[in-house]
Amino acid sequence: MRAIWLATIFALGACGASAIEQDAPDPPPVAFDGAIVQQASARIAHGRRIADVLGCTGCHGAGMQGKRFYELYASNLTTVVPDYSDGQLVQLLREGVHPTGRDVWGMPSEIFQYLSDPDVYALITYLRSLPPAGPPNQPRLPWEAETEKMIAEGELMPAAQWVRKAKDTVPVDLGPGHALGRYIAMVTCAECHGPKLEGNEGDTPDLLVASGYTREQFETLLATGVPVGGRQLRLMGEVSRQRFAPMTPNERDALYAYLVARAEPAR
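^ thats the sequence. predicted structure below, dont judge the formating
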């Protein structure tokens, strides 16, 4: 009898716990500040900001009207976005798969695959708000011999291949307290510093170096691209002005805290 009574109590307890778990709301997705909004105008404003933070304007131009860089032409998004559904645009951004089936080159989908729904849909909402303007899309230039060689050796690949290569190769997870900083690093810093932030073949350093910065010095780096010691970093200088300057103070705090915490085991 006692065993039955205990079993009943445990069963009721388990049912109660299950009910509580089912009633508990899901935690909000990790996203840039201002992503969790209902008003269309606020969603558009958020999408406009992260278009800068994610580097979209760097390739497609300030008005998203397309721009040539190297042997590629970044599409005029004001004219092509209306042709595709939200689902097709999400697939293009996150998977590097074009609705027409053609290869996508230069799109950093290997990091955009980790964009959360609030951010990716805010970006799409912003792009849909832009009236068609600017020049028509231009064809890609023929690959130069050096580019052909890099493609043949696997140094350059279409976006969809980069997505598959980088899948599940991510920076260390340091728990909920550092979730925002890790997310920001994954969808911004990883483009140059590699998917695990360990540097990229000698061109960019392992972001363990962030632990050598005070918060004030890190702020200077993000705002101006000037590191400790005052060296001039051409790429970081450009990235800082275009992409890190639009970040909120909370986002910069979270990124710094995550990078410093990531470096602690290596000290």
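Confidence is low (pLDDT under 50) at residues 1-21.
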